[in-house]
Amino acid sequence: MFLSNKKQSEVKVNGRGIAKRWAVLTLAGVLWIGPVAGTGALIPLNGWMSAPIASAASGSTVKLGEEIITSGATLLKYRFKGSKGTALADIIRVDLQNPYVKLDVMTGKNGQFTTRQSTGGMAKETGAVAGVNGDYFNTSSEGAPIGGQVSKGVLMSTPSDLTGMYAFAVTKDGSPMVEQFTFEGTVKAGDGSSFSLAGMNKASYSPETSGGNYSHSNAMYIYTSAWKAIERPKNSSTTPTEILVQNGVVTQVSDNATLNMTVPQDGYILRTHGKAADYAKAHLTVGQTVETSYHLRVKSTGSEVDPSNLQMMIGGHTILVNDGQKTSFSRSTTSIGGTRARTALGYSRDKRYAYVIAVEKNGNSVGVSLSELQTLMKDIGVWKGMNLDGGGSTTMVTRDLGDTTAGLTFNTEYGTEQRSIVNGVGVYTNAPKGTLKGFTIKGNKTLLIGQTGSYSFKGYDNYYNPFDTSKVQVTWKSSNPAVVSVSGGVVKGAKPGTATLTASSGSASATTKVTVLGADEISSLTAGTGTGSLTAGAKIAVPVTAKTKDGQSVSITSDALKWEFIGFKGSVKDNQLTVNTVDAGVKTGYAIGRYDGFSAVVFLSAGGASTNNWENFENVSYSVDFTSNVEGVTGTAAVVQGDGDHANSKVLELNYDMTNGSGKMYAYAQLNGTSGKTLEQAATSISIDVRGDKSLNWLRAELEDAQGKTAYIDLAKVIDWNGWKTINADMSGLNISYPAKLKRLYVVNVAEGQDERAKTGNVAFDNISFNTPGTVGTEGLKKGTAQMTIGQKSMTVNGTPTTIDAAPMTRDGSTYVPIKYVLDAFGGQAKWNAGDQRITIMRGGVLMDLTVGKKEVVLNGKRQSTDVAPVVLGGRTLVPLRLVSEQLGMTVKWEQETKTITLQS
């Protein structure tokens, strides 16, 4: 999308970044969708094929599957291996010879410029079954495309006078073009005189090929009702004379001023300056008749193109593919370089197919460079193609079979948020209502044990458009009721495994596979806030959230977990934990809920749950300074009086200006010089109130641990909000030693896609809290020193020797000890589950599950990988000492000569 426009003489065309999600659809039976290019084979549509269907000659592009959107439009998915890794590409292939489908340009809101709208919003407003983002535009200007545009056969914008800018067009007889176009137009007054038109509905810019310094100087532009804004263009450095023409007659003339009105539907406004204004004042007086004529011209051939003969046209950037091969860029790509999300258009050699291309950039896809995009386009069969706006603008929406509207095909760079843009390419169907052809099932592809799934049954006709099934009676059936049960239309996960869910009505049916996840697929399990009061009669909300390894967050009822209570007697029902009685002398209780063996824990303290407000900035005794990695970046960092929700408290405010910087730029709020503020206890998460500035920059915190190692916390990958909100960030995987120091809170503006993000802004911080489980329930925990020696069945605790029944040992460089004696010495307890070969360790606010032979630990409900695993030796389970003891709040020292281990708490 971007053209930055610091000055009228500095217009730069830029690109952008992205991320995504893919929906999988499985249908009963086989749906043949026609030959694959170059193979002659027929491909069944059973959702996305699980195995590659075709591999391109280069070996870097592999087709994963395809799915029909509507008659004549098919969504294809490819995997591309580039220099930075694997990228996913989503391509809408449109059959330009199919009478029931067409391409057109979607524009802003209500089909007007200066009214930016998301791709999905434009598709919904215009009824498109699919679409992508479109042309570049000046982000600091009103919101009009840089290139030419024809929509519904009407010229709405003319090409800018810039070098190497291509456009994609389709004639009304369905023939595609990728060419550079110029505009030629004339205004003829009733007295027979004429003056040339410079363009239509254009924002101001700096022309390149004609050598002009300012687009609207000494020029005449025509503005139609497609331009909604009152000003034409805004913040112009020239003073216009404007002429309103209605029904071919001049009705108003402003002298060196704007008309201060929107353009009426029955007319247009001529915006003139300098020589053009002189002509207008002499020849375009009120009552004078006016005629306009204009056309486009193809640069390469010189042939004239009547816009009324075009079905659509949209501007873009450089050409990418010509004659089926990668070609030299027609325009500098420096400002749109890097590995990014990309959008492009092209057509096949026989001109039958148009390709609408979007390459994802997210957790599953690294994006591509422009050179790699060329390779991808060549591989999929593009004969001639060009680049569209990319990066953060790259967005694709498609309508799934049976649905009535198009939804996001994959997540954008900012998740599900879609950027507002000036135009896009839409895919439209004009097929008549057809007869029922088939059904689809929409709903959960994965369930947890005890989770209820939501499923819908939708129909489509022989043109692959939605078919009303509201009066159709549907019967549901599971192929494996032991895994997925169906009762009264309610589908529920019963145990780990996979089952086929079938929906049928008469002779029609559809199926989808549903997988019930087991403990191995869970990365974390949380129950409520994880803390509560250990008091008889206490009631604690414990809604359970599971996070899967693939990033899904799933809410499940607490009743689906098997609960165990240590230190008290209680019960769990309807997402509520009730403390019935407390065991005598117990200060810390544990409610452990297990999902297929995976644990969630609620810590209950006799003193109740406490809040660790580590820093609220009310009484700061240390310095706060602004620093940066780049000399040109300036700003301030200071403790000031808050605003909004924090008006009654002091906050740390960080102001930054990166305008004069370059590359990857940081703006730091540095605490206590270079020393930072100390965090004594091990922390599993941080909570912090942040006032965002919607700069789209990256927000981070930096810590230094006791060993001098630096650790970074991503508070927000994108600052996409204004005002105050609370951020919670996980720290359990940092693997740092304590005490640690919080040294910096800061904003990052990375070099790639920098034009998408604000270079100036201000953020603020308040109420920093750390979750330090080791401080919960510390009553009963012991302090002191213990020593053990490798191979010896003895242990000294605070100077007193005692016998132990299993000696510490070393294996593969790690030390193992019988954990029972460590807990006896310092407080805590352990439980052994022989069936699962699992040892559960509890001390204070820490609960750990370790399994014999498994190099992982579940720490307070979060799965973590480890380098070592527990072992069984001589009937006694030994655990990795350093892994366990440091998580339990102890320090470990090793004496190499004597093979002595010293533990302190």
TrEMBL record:
Residue ranges occupied by any BIG2 domain in the UniProt entry: 435-515
SMART domains: BID_2
Gene3D superfamilies in the cross-refs: 2.60.40.1080, Copper amine oxidase-like, N-terminal domain (3.30.457.10)
A Pfam entry, by short name: NAGPA
Protein name (database record): Exopolysaccharide biosynthesis protein
Protein's organism: Paenibacillus peoriae
